[in-house]
Amino acid sequence: MEGPATVSGEDVRWAWSDLDRVADRTALRLAEAGVRPGDGVAVFLPPSPEAVVLLHALPRAGAFLLPLNTRWTTDELRRGLEAVPRPRLLLVTGHQVDRFRSELPQLGTVAVEEIVDEGAHPDDPTLRSAVPELTVDTPVALVLTSGSTGKPRPVPLTHGNLMASARGAGERLRLGPTDAWLASLSPAHVGGLALLHRAAVVGSPVVTRPTFDPDEFLALARRGDVSHASLVPVMLRRVLDAAEDEPAPRSLRCLLLGGARTPLPLLERALRRRWPVALTYGLTEASSQVATAPPERVREKPGCVGRPLPGVQVAIRSPDSGEPGSRGVGELLVRGATVAPLPPRDPDTGTPTGTVHVDRSGWLRTGDLGRLDEDGELWITGRASDRIVSGGVTVEPAEVEEVLVRHPAVAQAAVTGIPDEEWGERIVAVVVPVDGASPPGEAEVLAFAAERLAAGKRPRALRSVPALPLNANGKVDRAALREGW
User: Fold this and answer.
1) What is the pLDDT of residues 197-248, one digit of tens each?
2) Which CATH number fits domain 387-481: 3.40.50.1820, 3.40.50.10490, 1.10.3210.10, 3.30.300.30?
3) Contact between 417 and 450 (Cβ < 8 Å)
């Protein structure tokens, strides 16, 4: 951690040097609370200075971070914790201690205020004189990801993984100490975790907020308090709605957009108003970003997610041969220092506790579909498990969804297949209307799609909903889409 940059929250502002001392003191407090080398510490916190401290303090105590999604219900937390070795502690904000001690009594719940010591002083004799040496293999975090299945899967990330990701992203986006990042993505989301780590490596300010508010974000950007933000598409939509016809604030240099496929109409809307959108493709198993197109490249090639980051390799697995190297559409394979190691094994059974699949050549199978164009840049076309086969025709839901959201009354769309005796799978669509009080008629939208899609790709039924069903990680819940037809 270098430079005079700050980590600030709603009530806290620390220079990186201050945070470094607080992290050192916090590592001692963790040891006093019984945390030993090799332990995991579960953290149920929103983006905050305390979360940043713990990210740096836990490796100094020889432990690793297990960030939990603050949107999860107690049942979802139980399922997630069942997938990992039991953590030594569960850290929560003070007002939540009683709740978790009652609902999850098997865990040692402690208020984060008792562990993160803000009063650390450079002359405190209890502080250690040196930070322990971190190697590329030092575990830093165990991130639970559900992907599109909804079932929590643990992915271990090391110091080497996150450092490689930070360096690659920093080089691609030309990041430096003058950048100021809004951090409102949960640390339980790999994009939020990587942002906090990347800022420390670069030495840039971080402005944390427990939730994302588009009006507050615009106010921060207009004042010049933030120049960069990491968003998912629905957050960008909310910003553009709040800004109305206003162009991007002059101090805003980059909106890093990932986490889900960005609908082309939404991207075109942002580009028309000169918002500096950078598109990225990534996944938890590769420490967030795999490929990124900076704003100037997105303007030249809307929808392209750019070249792989420096130090990261991407290949396309041919559906015919199963080997990497195809130039057509196929499964994406990723290799490099950002790719997570094999998952930890259960100490009792010896079985792996996660599902990171890396072959003997080091290639990670992502399950995502894409292609590399003639410039070596990546385009995402869908996910293998989402494909629909209807009447012998293979249909990519993303292609149908892109058509549906071009209807002026449709804000969002999701498409799936349901069992059908005649067609094998019948294509159905769920849409969120622009105006919930006046949703478009089913026949109107289906006719709109029929004019723009081949017969085998057209939805056969459609319904309007107030919001798309999402899993705990904010991705469309495909299983929930199929219910009720």
Assistant:
1) 999 999 999 999 999 999 999 999 999 999 999 998 889 999 999 999 889 9
2) 3.30.300.30
3) no
